[in-house]
Amino acid sequence: MTTKPQAARVRIAASPRKLSLSHIAERFLIYLLLSVLSFVFLVPFFWLVSTSLKPRAQIFASNWIPDPIVWGNYAEVLRNTDFVLWTRNSLIVTFLAVVSVAFSSALVAYPFAKMSFPLKGPLFALILATMMLPGAVTMVPTFLIWKKLNAVNTFYPLWAGNLFGSAFYIFMLRQFFLTIPNDLKEAAIVDGASHLRIFWSVMLPLVKPAMLAVILFEFVAKWNDYMTPLIYLNDPRKYTLPLGVATFMNSAGFETRWDLWMASSVLMTIPIIILFFLGQRFFIEGIATTGLKG
Asked: What pTM did the predictor assign?
């Protein structure tokens, strides 16, 4: 015969199992949905890779697996283009742009999050308002400025503007700075640290996830930027990857070489994929925790 305390213990013991089963079912449905959505988003990339490995006769065929697999398409791209030179140019521009915008945006975001000064609110609103300006509005004035500085056909217009920060990254980093307790700043001030020292030694190490998210965003933006190099670069030896690949697609004899177009696109995408997987954990953490306090 089961007593009341024993029955209570039986119910308590059974309860976690019931919760565990519902939790497993919930996670299964979530993972199933994510798997389906991931497959949908990956289909274009699968098609890209598949087409890059097909013979010319099978480009518009319905088969997803090339038969035979033509690895020579990639070798032909490298042989008929300055792909290595374009990659070097893109790496230089992207590296300078990423470093400059990450540091300058963090330097601007810190005082808006952790310091008090006159007109702080209106100035921050003015920075955010710049995000509402379409790029086409500032394209011509910006070009005239760089032309006046004799910087056309150089790499400077492609990255030097990042020295003034980015409104979106400033907002993003400010929100992350706000999640850091003010006690850390006050303790550093008591120890005699200046605001610059606090920013460099205390705050920057704590916002590493957000900084890595900024780096990944900017890397993708600059790596895929086609319009800016098209406007400012005239020398083919200075072309970046997007502009170089577009020129290759329009060159004589390759206008209909879809296999080579796809092969060059795959080669261009590989660095972004590698960077994302290397910084995936920090990137997701930076995005997930941004804006928790504001």
From this structure: 0.82
